[in-house]
Amino acid sequence: MDAVGQAFGLILDTNVLLTILGSAVFGILVGAIPGLTATMATALLVPVTFFMPPVPALAAIVTATAMAIFAGDIPSTLLRMPGTPASAAYTDEAFAMTRKGQAELALGVNVVFSAVGGLFGTVVLMFAAPVLADLALGFSSFEYFWLACLGLTCGVFIASLTPLTAMVSLMLGLMVSTVGFDTISGFPRFTFGVTDLMSGVSFIPAMIGLFAVSEVLRGMADPESQASLPQQRIGNVFRGLGTVTRRYWPNALRGNAIGTIVGALPGAGADIAAWVAYAMSKKFSKEPEKFGTGHVEGIVDATSANNAALGAAWIPALVFGIPGDSITAIVIGVLYMKGMNPGPTVFIQNPQLIYAVFMAFIVANILMVPLGLAAIRGSTYILRVPRRVLLPIILLFCMVGSFAITSSVYGIVIMLAAGVVGWIMEENGIPVAPAILGLVLGEMLEQTFMTSMIKSEGNLAAFFDRPLSTALGVLTIAVWLFAGVSALMRLIRSRREVTA
Amino acid sequence: MRVNEAVIGALLIGLALAVFSITASFPRIPGQPYGPDLFPRVIAGMLALSGVLMIIRGVAIRPRHPLVTVADWARSPRAAGAIALTLGAIVAYILVSDTLGFVITATLMLAGMMLYLRVSVVTTAIAAVATALVVEYAFGSLMRIPLPRGLLVVFA
Questions:
Q1: Is the bond leading into A188 cis (omega within 30 degrees of zero)?
Q2: What is the pLDDT of residue A158?
Q3: Cα distance between residue A472 and residue A476, in whole Å
Q4: How far A323 CA lies from chain B's nearest CA (Å)?
Q5: Is the ipTM here above 0.90?
Q6: For B110-126, what is each residue's pLDDT tens digit?
Q7: I need a labelling partner for A424 at 20 to 30 A (CA). Which of A247, A323, A352, A379 fits?
Q8: Which of B13, B120, B145, B149 is best to mutate for the A interface (most A CBs within 10 A)?
Q9: Which of A178, A190, A443 to probe the B interface (max B CBs under 10 A)?
Q10: Sequence ranges of the domains in chain A
Q11: Which of A349, A222, A276, A137 is nearest to B80 (CA)?
């Protein structure tokens, strides 16, 4: 328990608390501006955290993302424009409430249940992560190989509507991860004589390009997509909240549970959690006919779920080094930069840092209520900042951020290339998130695969020798088979519908 | 610009073949059956497989998607220009920031993009100069990122 005391000391430092406050404001701004996601908030924060000690760096990311996911609900409710994709599941419902004159209630539900959901996810993270870490100490390269496969598979098949395009994206990401010195033999691969490429494609500029620059390009092409506020004044958001809580507390609990489970699954994050929770809410509701007409029930479920998912996504990230969503994919990069290599041993070597991360989550979610209220009051101003001014500034931040990581224009070149590729991919319906997952997990996948192959002298049966690796392997292959069959069925159905 | 899945599939297969031919020259570790070429080849194999599947889908799915669909932005010269300008601005920054320095390059870049997006001249001037100076101070001075000073080296 000494580590807990140390963690308290680390988090209650004035500088850390100021960092948390600053990143909270930053997260709210980014989340409230439609088109800028929580992932982008993280991407833009990383270059700044680069120069901080580990605790404020991680606390900044934790706070900014928690705030961004909540703040995404503000434009979603008031403008029918989800601030982040995590709000998309219940945007129509929340906006329908606004049209009925219930914007206050919708926003009040969002801020309170987001905070509760976030705390729930954090509690699960605090208890599950050390237990899983104990288990993971006995893992060999075979188990890690299957876990990485499972993580990538979930990223492809759960997180996307069209698994094939997600697989294309993932394979491109994995391919790019092989650029640079090979981890086993040290041979420089695909560098084409460029010295900068020898250490690999720098991950953070690539990610800034894929997520942020592609978004800027899309925004530049259509800078006018800004709606006007239908409701100008926001009253007391706590009115009626008591009734909602008394009536729908089981929904909040269910939303929390769903969010935690989906978040903890590798590859699926807050966006998916909100969709699943909303769908479940409708399915089990006593009055499903009211859904879509401005009914608060589904919002309780979904807004609880997306914030719960945020904390739970850190479970696989910290314990196995496998990201639970695209935000933790970036976090893993940060952990490596700070010398806190994710994996079970981080709980033994740096427990005070891990506990400090947990506490940052708690502080962030408590801070969410007062800051959220302020943001709701100020939302009429935030939402008036014109995108035409904002887009060039965001681009400049992307460039400075990429430059900061490599201290040379090489970072900007990577960012530009990734931005163009990401933009072309999204134009063609290929999601970019799996590519990031591939880029992050590529090295681990290759290392565990090669180590396992060399250990077993090429005998593939060795991948199923140990009980745990067998279980993980069978599970992974079952998901592959299921996905393959269902894709085939869909194709056949599409042909049959046309002939019929 | 949206192309049919089959076209993407063909490109992926091309990429996979290129990876196979490049990895052929990779050295082997003496005494090891597997070298640095194995993993890229496995991934290239998967890329080729997804390429084949993309071709099947592009050809088989009903209703069939056209070979090339022109996106909204490509039909509007203004939108296409905005994208070209953005990419051009990044390239220009890469080329001249070292000579001109961060503050001048960033101000010009921001001003050019904002004026193109029809932000008023006054707002542009204030926003561009203020942003460039704030970034220079926050990143350059506080976080000690070596942003190029260029022509402003006399003030350093």
A1: no
A2: 58
A3: 6
A4: 20
A5: yes
A6: 999 999 999 999 999 99
A7: A323
A8: B145
A9: A178
A10: 2-494
A11: A222
